């Protein structure tokens, strides 16, 4: 797979934040207990005039700038999300129109809970490796839904991240060394059409997460005959602050390998954007010739595991677009009432 590489990446995180204590106070909960239980203290909130489309656009613009390409060079545009604004009318074509890509491109929206974006990355990688296309963009964006007074309300966040993939060249940021997927019919999380908020299996979701992330991780490590010691960084989907830390330790990765990816500590869980943002955060600091291990997770259920190796473009293109840390500096805290005014239902 090392003929396919990451040519650019971009992120977008709304400036608004809602602290756990704000939500806990409304529902009469002990905020310290909630924070300790989830390992989360705040989450990012899309403003009243933001949605999956607007955030996907911002992330895509940043990726194009970092890649140094023209929008018209893009031949495939896939958006992974579980909060597409329309049930019928693709997010991808709206964003592509705003970008000025043109008409000669393949487009689709993907859904697989929080791993839809990594599935988009696999699909584009396969198209490029086959020689059918040369350039594609995979976007993960979500304004995550959560029923009021549900445990998800403390973590369900908003953000977007995108990756431009091409054939490997002198300006590439990272090789896609290999990937694998691990899937099953495990309904730990679901939302029927027309229902505003998802339902979940409570503690059963923990067992589903660990089974699939571990399954995908071990399958890819065995396939490549690698161990956690062969990597400089690791990234795992972050539904809360505890799960990625626990699975990293269980697999044999260190806290130092994991720490740069932990965007959950700052913005919560933006669903399809979660692992993409973790990878972006790692690329923001990684030097060339570093090995990165990443595993996404989507309820329902499945995981995609990847191995990346950074190239010289990772340093050369770092300042071409805003880094993830630049968005974290723009934080503005809001109250629960303001959160509701931004369009959340109660």
Automatic annotation (TrEMBL):
InterPro entries: ACP_syn_III_C, HMG_CoA_Synthase, Thiolase-like. One of its GO terms (biological process) is secondary metabolite biosynthetic process. It comes from the Bacteria. Keywords: Acyltransferase, Transferase. Transmembrane segments: none annotated. GO terms for molecular function: hydroxymethylglutaryl-CoA synthase activity. CDD domains: init_cond_enzymes (cd00827). Residues 221-308 form the Beta-ketoacyl-[acyl-carrier-protein] synthase III C-terminal domain. Pfam families: ACP_syn_III_C (PF08541). NCBIfam families: HMG_CoA_syn_Arc (TIGR00748), PRK04262.1 (NF003274). This is Hydroxymethylglutaryl-CoA synthase.
């Amino acid at each position: 797979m090392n003929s396919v590489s990451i040519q650019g990446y971009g992120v977008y995180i709304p400036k608004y934040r809602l602290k756990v204590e704000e939500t806990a106070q409304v529902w009469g909960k002990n905020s310290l207990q909630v924070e300790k239980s989830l390992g989360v203290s705040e989450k990012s909130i899309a403003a009243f005039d933001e949605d999956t489309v607007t955030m996907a656009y911002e992330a895509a613009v940043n990726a194009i700038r970092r890649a140094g390409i023209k929008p018209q060079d893009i031949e495939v545009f896939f958006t992974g999300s579980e909060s597409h604004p329309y049930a019928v009318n693709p997010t991808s074509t709206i964003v592509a129109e705003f970008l000025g890509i043109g008409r000669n491109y393949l487009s689709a929206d993907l859904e697989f809970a929080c791993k839809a974006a990594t599935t988009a990355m696999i699909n584009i990688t396969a198209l490029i490796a086959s020689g059918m296309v040369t350039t594609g963009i995979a976007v993960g964006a979500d304004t995550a839904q959560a029923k009021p007074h549900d445990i998800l309300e403390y973590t369900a966040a908003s953000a977007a991240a995108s990756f431009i993939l091409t054939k490997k060249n002198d300006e590439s940021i990272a090789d896609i060394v290999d990937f694998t997927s691990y899937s099953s019919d495990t309904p730990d999380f679901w939302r029927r059409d027309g229902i505003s908020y998802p339902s979940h299996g409570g503690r059963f979701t923990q067992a589903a997460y660990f089974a699939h992330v571990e399954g995908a991780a071990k399958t890819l490590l065995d396939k490549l005959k690698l161990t956690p010691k062969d990597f400089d960084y690791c990234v795992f989907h972050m539904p809360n602050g505890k799960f990625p830390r626990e699975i990293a330790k269980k697999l044999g990765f260190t806290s130092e390998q994991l720490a740069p990816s932990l965007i959950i500590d700052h913005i919560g869980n933006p669903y399809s954007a979660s692992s993409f943002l973790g990878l972006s955060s790692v690329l923001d600091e990684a030097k060339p010739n570093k090995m990165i291990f990443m595993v996404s997770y989507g309820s329902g259920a499945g995981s995609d595991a990847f191995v990346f190796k950074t190239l010289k473009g990772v340093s050369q293109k770092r300042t071409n677009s805003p880094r993830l840390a630049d968005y974290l500096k723009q934080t503005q805290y809001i109250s629960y009432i303001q959160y509701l005014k931004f369009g959340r239902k109660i």
